[in-house]
Structures are given as C-alpha cells and as structure tokens.
Amino acid sequence: MFGLTPYTRRNNTPAYYDPFRDLENFEKNFFGSGELPTFKTDIRDTGDAYELEADLPGFQKENIKIDIEGEQLTIRAERKGDREEKDKKGNYVYRERSFGTYSRSFDISGVRTQDISAKYNDGVLTLTLPKLQETKPETRRLEIG
C-alpha cells in the first residue's frame, strides 16, 4: 500500500546525525515552506515584441485570467480541488497535487498594451507583447530674447 507514495531521496551517507535537521523538516512539513504558489515562465525578446510563455499544466482556459493595470500585467490561474466525500473517508494513500490560486505580475512598461495577444495550448500560456516604438526626441533651438 505505501509503495505508491513518492520516493524522496535523502543523503545516503550522512557524516553525522543532526537532530536539528529532523526538527527543521518537521517544521516545514507542519507549517509549509512559506513559499507562495507560482508557475514558471520564460520571456524572449523577438526584436519587435516580447514573448512570454508560462507553464500552466492542468488548468482550464476558463480559469486563467490576465489583467492589465497601468504598467503591470498579472496572470492568475485557479485550480479547484475535488472536494469529494472520499477525502474525508481517507481513501487517499498520498495526495500532493495542489489546488488554489496562482499569480504572477510583470512590469510591462515599454509595451503596447492594446496589442497584447494571448493563446493557451497544451498547458502553456503564450503572450505576445509588442514593444512601443521608440520616438526620437525632436530637437529645436530656442532664440534668446
């Protein structure tokens, strides 16, 4: 029955026994790691645009929201858990898939926000963020009066 639980390899040959390591592991397991849930992203500069790819496997497109406020773009994705009665009966041997809301924000100054496009395919969200065209400042000479 317990052969189905994920295997976590520890240091096979500890030089000495450290009881504080076990205490630290207990604290992390009990209280959590303290890290906020997030997702991995890659951002490429394609010359006239940036391309952002975010790994969001297991999410439905309807549960992904992209908001732009000022010069900040925020991606939020929500995965709802299956809160069935079998959870309460204890039929799970091990459960590690996470459920909840995941969020990341990005500075998009220098981007034409009205032209941003998004697509979601095979668990990868791809945003194309066109760059603003750089305008060269106009030079003029002032007459001294």
What value does the average pLDDT take? Answer: 79
What is the 3D shape? elongated
Strand content: 25-35%
How many E strands?
A: 7
Continuous helix count: 2
* CATH class (first level) name of the domain at 37-130: Mainly Beta
Using the CA coordinates, give the radius of gyration: 24 Å
The CATH architecture designation of the domain at 37-130 is Sandwich
Any idea of the CATH topology of the domain at 37-130? Immunoglobulin-like
The poorly predicted ranges are 1-9
Order of helices and strands: HEEEEHEEE
Distance between the termini: 92 Å
Helix content: 10-25%
**Strand numbers in spatial order across the main sheet:** 1-2-7-6
The biggest beta sheet is recorded as: 4 strands, antiparallel
Structural class, judged by helices and strands? mainly beta
Task: Summarize the helices and strands and which ones pair or pack.
Elements lengths: L18 H13 L9 E5 L3 E7 L8 E6 L2 E8 L5 H5 L10 E8 L9 E5 L2 E7 L15
Antiparallel strand pairs: 1-2, 2-7, 3-4, 4-5, 6-7
Key phrases:
single chain, 145 residues, mainly beta, Immunoglobulin-like, four-stranded antiparallel beta sheet, three-stranded antiparallel beta sheet, 2 helices, 12% helix, elongated, disordered N terminus
Folded structure, characterized:
By secondary structure, the chain is mainly beta. It has a domain at 37-130: Immunoglobulin-like (Sandwich), CATH 2.60.40. Helix content is 12%, strand content 32%. The chain has a four-stranded antiparallel sheet, with no helix packed on it. It has a three-stranded antiparallel sheet with strand order 3-4-5, with no helix packed on it. The protein is elongated and about 85 Å long. The relative contact order is 0.20. Mean pLDDT is 79; it is low at 1-9.
